Amino acid sequence: MLTVLLGMAVIILIGVIWRLVLGGQTSEVVRSHLAQAVYNIFLPALVLHVLWRVPVDLNTVRIPVISALSVLLALLIAFLIYSNGRVVRGFMGPVHSNRAIGALLLAAAFGNFTYLGLPVLTQTFGPWSQFVAIHFDLLASTPLLFTVGIMLARHYGSGDGHGMHPLLALMQVPALWAAIAGLLLSISGIAMPAWVDEALSTLGSAVVPLMLLSVGMALRWKAGWLRRMPVLLPVLMIQLLAMPLIAWAAAIGVGLPDRLLAPVVIEGAMPSMVLGLVICDRFKLDSALYAEAVTISTALSLLTLPLWLQVLV
Questions:
Q1: Contact, 177 vs 142, CB < 8 A?
Q2: Domain, as residue range, for 19
Q3: Fewest beta carbons less than 10 Å away: which of 30, 48, 146, 235?
Q4: Number of domains in the chain
Q5: Range from 34-38, 58-62, 155-159 carrying the lowest mean pLDDT
Q6: How much is the average pLDDT of 107-120?
């Protein structure tokens, strides 16, 4: 796995360098277009291609249950640590404490399950494991993000999110519709035509490199991060240590097959979610603090993920 992560780290680093070469404003435009292409075209194609071929069975329920427990328990731990504001006010000051708390709760509970999890599982376990990341994210984490996550962002932020209802926002996720279509086609037993297989496979193959480039271009660094480490430390501990342990315990509790245990735990060990930057911007949470959580947790995950795999195997 170390070789795999080093290869992925190189692509992420290329994204970081590309951001520096292009400059902040231009690179953000490029990253936004890349992310939109993945979000609206390539990822839905991959999701449809994978789920159409995977039989619907008890694991289709087990994996989302594990994901939901991981996210909600991580959110509960983060809420108990941050909600009274003492940790945040001590280092961030009282003026923007609510904005910081909202950003930290999102960073602690919602991992980069698709944008980084999908490439990691694909490169580590093989293409067969892609459905684990898709079930983990699209059938549990994403619905929770666009309901519970949005409600938290509205509570702690000052934006209205353009007045969009969380469920309406959820219904506008293209990959979610692709997942529903894939599950229905799998249940129906309709065979995938060869030309559809080829087209979806070609589109889906672009997901991994573009996602990794997008992650690299989304990473931000701000002076004074060392002073803010005590604020970020609980997020890092929850994302990189507590969540995989919760996922492991939940997997055993629901009777997940042994061959799926390692992919599920590795999926639970992903760093903070890049997409949360969009939510922080929309609801006027502390985007800079959230970006630091993403950057530091992503960097540390390159060390912690091989350790988790070593424990699991």
A1: no
A2: 2-312
A3: 30
A4: 1
A5: 155-159
A6: 92
